[in-house]
Amino acid sequence: MISDPKAAGFIWWTELGTSFVVSSAGEFSRSILGQHFKHNNFSSFVRQLNMYGFHKINRTPRNQRVQPDAQQWEFSHPKFLRGRQDLLDDIKRK
After folding, report:
1. Side by side, which strands form the sheet with 55-57?
2. pTM of the entire structure?
3. Residue 55: enclosing H or E segment and its boundaries?
């Protein structure tokens, strides 16, 4: 999904390639999720990431409010790294 050119405006690797960012959660859900999952519910997507050991990285300062659809969501997993497909088999459901 991250490598899909159609999804490039909604999901991308961070500069270091150690995490990925999802932008415009509503539009991401409507346009991208249904192509890769049996649903297009962003909350379910986040729950699935959590079940596989991904963690949300919060970069928004506590006193700043951001509209939900304008918020960027960043996720990381120690075995999910750009260019390291060899590590994907090590990502297991909790």
Report:
1. 11-13, 19-23, 72-76, 55-57
2. 0.86
3. strand 55-57
- Convert the pLDDT of each residue in 1-30 to its tens digit: 898 888 999 999 999 999 999 998 889 999
Domain ranges of the chain: 5-87
- At 94, the amino acid letter reads K
**85 φ, ψ (degrees, to nearest 5):** -60, -25
Question: What are the tokens at 65?
Answer: 């409010």
Count how many Cα atoms sit within 13 Å of the Cα of residue 3 in the half-sphere of its side chain.
Answer: 5
* pLDDT tens readout for residues 48-70: 999 999 999 987 666 666 665 66
| Residue 11, strand partner residues | 22
Question: Of 2.60.120.200, 3.20.20.70, 1.10.10.1100, 1.10.10.10, which CATH number belongs to 5-87?
Answer: 1.10.10.10
